[in-house]
Amino acid sequence: MLMIPSESQGKRKLYSISEQKVYNNFELPQACNSTRRCCGSSNAPGWLVAVDQLGEHQLSTTLVNVFKRDVTPIRLPLLDFNAQSHWFRVFSPKVILSADPIANPDNYVVVAVYDRVSRSAFIKGGQTIWTYLEVRSFFTDAIFYKRKVYAGYLVETTKGELLHVRRFLKQKDVPRDHYFHYEDNEFWTESFKVYKVVFDERDESIVEHVELKSIGDKALFVGGNHSMCVSASNFPGCQPNSIYYTDDLIELGEVRLVDDGSIDMDDIFSLVKLEDETISNGPSDMGIFNLEDGSITQHYSLNPWHRNIPPAIWIMPLFNGLG
User: Fold this and answer.
1) What is the pLDDT at residue 109?
2) Domain chopping of the chain, boundaries
3) Buried b (16+ CB within 10 A) or exposed e, 138-175
């Protein structure tokens, strides 16, 4: 399911991909309002992580179960956030669960990727202090896989394989040293590549990445949340051999590109901020990428008024549909 903005200010609603239906009457928890960043986790179906900024140096993190109203939200300790406020809007924090907090109240782990996607932190259920890890690399995703944590656009398949997904973005040609307006120059998804991660059976080290031309009946869901995988045949209307994606790159308004040309999510690029106000292009880069022919179609089209709001996110339901 896709959590999308609502016409009501500060609200979100759910859209079913397989049913192509918006559940207007399903009321989401208060923590899911559109002023907060949210992230779904496939390891814990039904759970969202809501992140909000407190000042310029701390983030509040709350675990919320969307479909079980009798479950009390879990408030985690405040997370250190040593960055200027506009970075919270530009690079959405991604928080991922290792397991369902209800079934594993003292044995689940939370990992946060945040602070200009160069920092991560870990905490176990019941602990009161985060463990921080400085990573000198550019990554936007993490996954718990066979009791280890890996970073990148990563997704575990229904058969237990680990896939590495690369997203390639394209931007309109901009003359060097040219200052542009955000409405005329946006990054758009051009294509994806999918690789199977091959491990050494002896020491579980990564041996190679093998590019896959097809993922068969699988459908992948990527964006500003935990990457997910389902068998398309289990969800009528879901396209197999496809990647469903949402917008997870929010550009700055009135900026200058330091390095022009096409980029992909594995390349480090820089933006120089020229004004005090950060302007969002909005979560408009969404679609379905077909691995067989490279075509892109739409799964849900947002309205123009959806600019300057947090992007839509994927959430794994506890069951197929809400009735």
Assistant:
1) 92
2) 2-314
3) ebbbbbbbeeebbbbbbbbbeeebbbbbbbebebeeee
